[in-house]
Amino acid sequence: MRQALRGLTTRGRSFLAAAAAAGVSALILGERDLLRVAILLATLPLLAAAYVGQTRYRLACTRTVEPGRVPVGSPARVLLRLSNLSRLPTGTLLLEDRLPYALGSRPRLVLERLGGQRASTVAYTVRAEVRGRYEVGPLVVRLTDPFGLCELSRSFTTIGRLTVVPQVVTLPNVRLAGEFAGSGDSRARSVAVHGEDDIATREYRDGDDLRRVHWRSTARTGELMVRREEQPWESRATVVLDTRRQGHRGEGPTSSFEWAVSATASVALHLRRSGYKIRLVTGGGVDMDATERDGEGAVLDCLAEVDLSAANDTLSLVERVRRRGDGGLVIAVLGGLSLLEAEALGGLRSSGTTCFGLLLDPATWLNLAEDVRTQTVADHEAAALTLLRAGWRVVSVEHGTSLVALWPQAARGSQGFAWRAAMAETVAPTGGRTR
After folding, report:
1. Cβ contacts of 18-26, under 8 Å, gap ≥ 24
2. How far is it, in rounded angstroms, from Cα 175 to Cα 410?
3. Pick from 112, 152, 106: which is nearest to 8 by CA?
């Protein structure tokens, strides 16, 4: 009862205040009828508190979030199924689901009546403009009397989880150089097959499938020969995301970092769907393979939580990429670079590796003073040319540029880049130019 009295609403407290005022006036004026009114005004909220306080509903709640993983800006639907486990019907139920601030305001729903051993389903929609993992719930049920004089809250413990992943765009199919890597005894032979005579063979062993018998070699050697099992070459790609705080500009969904995260997700998923074995490396310490069955989901879940890091150690990122490097393709989404950082990244280029960089131009993501802008542009061009001289393929990314338009440049080489006009220039370490 004490908890129920604490649950009196503003209307219920107003009734008690009016009852007190009427009672004092009745005593002063000697009006018995006014005293009866005071007793009635005080009785109503007390009865309401007793009614709500003695309510013993047996309710169960199940929650479903559909889908559990959505891109930034896309809606998700939350389904709440409320079941009355007792045989007695409920009164009016006020439902309020707790949500993080990023998912919007808390939804409030009214359930007029829920019959005994009956269930009812309600739904609402949430939308997030910021990546991340969010907890939806728990559900709070507010019990109230028919007059709205008293209200108590009961909270469930079950929660749902929603993962908001970066926006993924569909990229055109282009042929990427340096995409193949592999190992094994038959590696050289697997790309040199021009006909039946070039097939690698070995002697027949017990248990070999007779369908693999190579009759021409058998006739030539006089012994039963079978085709050697070859290890096919693999398409491997390492996708690198630069998370240095000082390399990115802007705030919120329009920042250069959010563009970089979306580009990383788009490139990784595009290559994986094209048959690549994907490895994701970030400056924040992430190093994961995305070759398992739910590799796409793993990549998206990882990028949903990735954030800017205060560390400015490009060498550690380079070493992390090299640690398991075995040739193939390296695609890096990079923020603004200094000349030394570009030189460190240039070391990733080797005879067995093709490196392709999407280099964000920091000057286009902020309104800078003219002198600062000039220096930023000069540093950006110097870093790009340093990567180009190291053998990288580089594409400059300006604010508002579509990744779909930039992606075909991955197959064109240096002549297809915005830097072809700058290739004739030599950029001094100080940022100045000399012909």
Report:
1. none
2. 8
3. 152
pLDDT for 10-29, tens place per residue? 888 899 999 999 999 999 88
Q: Which residues of 189-205 are buried (b: 16+ CB within 10 A; e: fewer)?
A: eeeeeeeeeeebbeebe
Q: What is the pLDDT of residues 246-258, one digit of tens each?
A: 889 888 888 999 9
CA distances (Å), origin 17, targets 21, 296, 363: 6, 62, 65
| Check whether domain 234-434 has CATH 3.40.50, yes or no | yes
**58 alpha-carbon distance from chain centroid:** 38
433, amino acid identity: R
**CA angle (275 as vertex; 273, 278 as ends), nearest 5:** 85
Domain map of the chain by residue range?
2-53, 59-165, 185-227, 234-434
Cα 62–Cα 63–Cα 64 angle in degrees, nearest 5: 130
Domain 59-165 has CATH 2.60.40.10: yes
- Predicted local distance difference test score (pLDDT) of residue 209: 75
Q: Which helix (H) or strand (E) element contains residue 235?
A: strand 234-241
3-class DSSP state for residue 396? Answer: strand
Q: How far, in Å, CA of 265 to CA of 300, rounded? A: 7
